[in-house]
Amino acid sequence: MKRRTGRVTRNLARGGLLAVLLCSTFAAGQSQEGGGEETQDPPTEPPAAAGEQVAPAEPAAQEEPAEAPPTPEPARYRDAGEVAALVTGWLGSGLAERIEVGASVGGRTIEAIQFGGGGATPLSERPTIFLVGGLDGVSLAGAEAVLRVTGELLAAPDKLPAEATFVAIPWANPDGLERWMRSGTGDGRNDRSVDDDRDGTADEDAPDDVDGDEVVLSLLLEDRDGPWARADDDRLLRPARPGDGQRYRLVREGRDDDGDGRFNEDGPGGVVPDLNFPVGWRGPWTGAPSGRWPLSEPAARALADLAIERRTAAMLVFQGNHGRIASPGGVPLGDEVPDLPADRVAFEHVTERFNAATGRAQAGVRRLAEARGEERPGAAIDWSYVALGALSFEVAPWGPRVEGAARKPKATDARYGREEAGGEHGERQAPAREREWASWLDNTRGGIGFIDWQPIDLGGGAPGAGLNGVAGWIGGWEPRTRVNPPPELLPDVLRGMSSFVLELANGLPVLDVEAEAVRESGDVVVLRARLRNRGALPTGVGPLGGEPARGGASLTLRVPEGAELLVGEETVALGHVAGRGASTELTWLLLAPEGAVLALEARAPWHAPVEKVVRP
Amino acid sequence: MRSLLLLGFACLSAAAQDPEPPEEPPVEEPVKQPAPAPEAPEPEPLELSFREPPDADTVEAALRDFAIRHPGRARVEAFGTSGGGRELLALVLGDLADGDEATRPGLLLLAHEIEGSGASIALRTAQLLLDEADGDGDSILRDCTVYLLPAADPETEPGGVRFGCNFPIGWRPDSLRPGSGNYPLSEPETWATADFLASHPNIAVVLEAATAGKVAATGERASPAPEADAALFQSLAGRGGGDPRLPRLVPCTLLDEAGGGVLDFAYEALGMIACRVADGRAPRDGGERVAQVDAGARLVLQLARELPQVTLAAREVVCVRPGLYRIDLTCGNRGVLPTLSELGLRRHAAGEIELALTGGNVIACAHRRGDAGYEVAAGGAERFPIGQIAGGGEVELRLVVEAEPGSELELRGVSTRAGVAVLAIPLPG
């Protein structure tokens, strides 16, 4: 194991007694982990009691096991086999149906199920809420979130809305997740073989466990043109500035396997499916693992095809480590992802409900790039929002402010939250996101989870002065710290997610048509109709494309035989009708003989058609 | 005689067109393939008229006819299936006997508008290459491979997804730009076309024959082309523009379109040189249309003649000491077009020239940089990338090689898009 005692000592000074207590608790958990992104799970813990969670149903009588609602699975990291077994169990309960979405590039089945309340409309025709886990290929916690939400929703089927469908794809990027779980490498790429360094050989220079401690960490290389310099906290890095004496490159731990002077520049795997969607997509020539063209990857294309096939109301992608709910905008708002003020109300509403359900305190809507701290071109949620008009969010279960969100600062805390504006000290600070993580590490985890930088022999015969005179240090964040939370935190991290999803489903639009037809004189009829949305959410979001029927709500008057429309259009496009009782009134003037029956039909993308018959 | 339409261009019989009939494929054919009966009658050419646009059935019949009559130089490939279930067909023209057509520089011409003259131009191009005795079709097909996709979108439907808006570069969703589809390459026709392009990295030039009504030269695009490409495209832009009745060449960088087209995809994603063969003004009668089609096809052939071709020539071989040699040589491009677009080079598209030596060990490979002397580029490897070379250009190289005295080295210059040059270098004893 790599040394971390020095860091604990350091943080004893920073964090005080609390840190000592946390150290001993967490160290025990770590020793069970085995050091890597292991597949052996720690002892499972029962789901934490939480008032806002969906309560499990009472166990059914033993004589009818097939109808027994499944008990929620405890939160923990599962591998692909365990996910498949869990899905099979849900299918066996009769409450869920399998959906075929194909396989990954690596040939791994992408497990997907659908379920919903007991409405008359077939599941495939209802407004659908997608629950997608770990499309980024690294967020095991995102995958667990989908499993957790699915388990809890299925445990209380009577609480599911009757006219909505949930589609759960817990391991949406099985190639990336499998590799990340096994070795903590690959950065979420699928199994497509790509010659990243264009040397004629693919996947020949992967990260390695150089020091043999069974963990692949980070490798800091001295490089006079490198983009990084050491921050005042010498664990952390900051962007290098002119005049910095020592600069560094940061790569994953590994050797220069192909002897080209570069480290780990062509590891296994090729494309991250969550960078493979069309809106905002940037080509592979930018260096992004984005695929040879949009939706070139089976996992991305299958998800897109399924979402197009359905009446997709919401796309919730559970992944990321920013701890927030992020709305579309992986690239700057503008041509590719339009900034539509009318949709902001819906985004704010969903963000508020997320805060309420999870106990988090996100201040307002955060665009995807803002939440992540960097652009995310080609993200799935940008496409589902712009192309499909779906409420789309990235839900990050984990983040630096998730654990101990309600914890009050103490006098003994290490001071990371305070900005040091200006001055030499301020200039040497690590970026805010790094300081957030350092604060979590020191004040909540007692400093456990970061391996101090240790000099390493890169082949030159002496530690710190290795191959070609390049000095290198191995260290950095341990597995299951930043990208995914320590396993024992999962119950807390995932708390409230199912309540949030259920509330979102219950907030889908509910359309009413009120109509009155008055015979003015003889056969002249004035028809007034009002379309009202009693749901919390609008009837749709996203651009309408200038075509009235696309994406917006509409009201159609079916003119009966013998009648004639004098004023008004048969179909009137209404755009997106806001929620919470908002309504739109329309008037038609027509000639209608005695006994004529006027039929109105309201349509909206997230709602089944509503008919209303009026007799003048 | 199978006559489909009025005769526009007189087609000579197969025997008359091919004074030197192509050789039969190698005899190592599968046993199940019966040899053609020697007494079988010579297939008669299908008569083609270009007085009006051919329908999809006519196009298919014509492609198969070319392949039947010229088995060593023409082959029909199905590269996909349309949404309506029709096979998407490509006619591959070249020296097909040796199976190396994919290593030669390629030119692709596609058409997707049933009403335009594109399909006719493609068929006329095949006719000129295969059936016209007075042309230089033989030499073109010996040096390069021509791919014709005359009906890439055979079932265009009004109001549906448009072929010209469904490719990835510059694509916008239907909600922002109606007719673009829910995602790029959502249609089987566009997917198949993109896949065909991507799986034929030898294609150096992509031409889209389309109506001129969609062309507006502005001289600028949202993401400007690199300087070298801009100059190249400017030089191509003048082709065929003298007579407004006739087609002209419009490079993709000068098209003022919304994005999502096949040319932007070919250029920006694959680094290919991409131009539109834009129709001239609407023909007044069948005769004028025939002239337009012929002019369009000759424009295509002109570019086929200008495809890049790698050359190698040794200038000096010096024995530095026994077993160590200094070899000065030039690697050139005898074509008019560059071996790879500048954008393609920057984006690491296939096509960079690489040298590979057998028979010796390369200690160093150096480029001559004008008066600045040689710059050592690489050594101790098996392949030496040397970038791209402009049309008619060359680079001077110096190799330092360890080899057996008196042996012979073989140096190969390979560019996916500019072919292969092989140079034998005998070493002094």
Detail the topology: elements first, then pairings.
The complex is a heterodimer of chains A (616) and B (429).
Chain A: H1 5-15, H2 17-33, H3 80-92, E1 97-98, E2 113-116, E3 127-133, H4 140-154, E4 165-169, H5 174-183, E5 218-222, E6 228-230, E7 237-239, E8 248-252, H6 298-309, E9 311-318, E10 325-327, H7 341-358, E11 366-367, H8 368-372, H9 380-386, E12 391-395, H10 423-427, H11 432-444, E13 450-456, E14 472-477, H12 490-493, H13 497-506, E15 511-521, E16 524-533, E17 553-558, E18 564-567, E19 571-575, E20 582-591, E21 598-604, E22 607-614
Parallel strand pairs in A: 3-4, 3-9, 9-12, 10-11
Antiparallel strand pairs in A: 1-2, 2-4, 5-8, 5-14, 6-7, 10-12, 13-14, 15-16, 16-20, 17-19, 17-21, 18-20, 21-22
Helix pairs in contact in A: 1-2, 4-13, 7-13
Chain B: H1 14-17, H2 56-69, E1 74-81, E2 87-93, E3 106-111, H3 118-130, H4 137-143, E4 145-149, H5 188-198, E5 203-210, H6 227-237, E6 248-251, H7 262-269, E7 273-278, H8 286-305, E8 310-321, E9 324-333, H9 342-346, E10 354-358, E11 360-368, E12 374-378, E13 383-385, E14 394-403, E15 408-415, E16 419-426
Helix pairs in contact in B: 2-3, 3-8
Q: Give the % helix of chain B.
A: 10-25%
SSE-based structural type of chain B: alpha+beta
Major sheet description of chain B:
7 strands, mixed
Number of helices of chain A: 13
Oligomeric category:
heterodimer
Rg of chain B to the nearest angstrom?
Answer: 23 Å
Strands of the largest sheet of chain A, in order across it?
1-2-4-3-9-12-10-11
Mean pLDDT score of chain A, rounded?
Answer: 83
**pLDDT < 50 stretches of chain B:** 1-33
Mind explaining what this structure looks like?
- The complex is a heterodimer of chains A (about 625) and B (about 425).
- Chain A is an alpha+beta fold and about 625 residues long.
- Chain A has helices at about 5-15, 15-35, 80-90, 140-155, 175-185, 300-310, 340-360, 370, 380-385, 425, 430-445, 490-495, 495-505; strands spanning about 95-100, 115, 125-135, 165-170, 220, 230, 235-240, 250, 310-320, 325, 365, 390-395, 450-455, 470-475, 510-520, 525-535, 555-560, 565, 570-575, 580-590, 600-605, 605-615.
- In chain A, helix 7 links the parallel strand 10 (about 325) and strand 11 (about 365).
- In chain A, helix 1 (about 5-15) runs antiparallel to helix 2 and helix 4 (about 140-155) crosses helix 13.
- The radius of gyration of chain A is 28 Å and the shape is elongated.
- Chain A starts with a helix and ends with a strand.
- Mean pLDDT of chain A is about 85; it is low at about 1-65 and about 460-465.
- Chain B has nine helices and 16 strands.
- Chain B has helices spanning about 15, 55-70, 120-130, 135-145, 190-200, 225-235, 260-270, 285-305, 340-345, and strands at about 75-80, 85-95, 105-110, 145-150, 205-210, 250, 275-280, 310-320, 325-335, 355-360, 360-370, 375-380, 385, 395-405, 410-415, 420-425.
- The radius of gyration of chain B is 23 Å and the shape is globular.
- In chain B, the strands form three sheets. Chain B has a seven-stranded mixed β-sheet with strand order 1-2-4-3-5-7-6, sandwiched between helices. In chain B, strands 8-9-14-11-12 form a five-stranded antiparallel β-sheet, with no helix packed on it.
- Chain B has about 425 residues and is of the alpha+beta class.
- The chains are: A alpha+beta (about 625), B alpha+beta (about 425).
- The interface between A and B is medium-sized, with 30 and 24 residues.
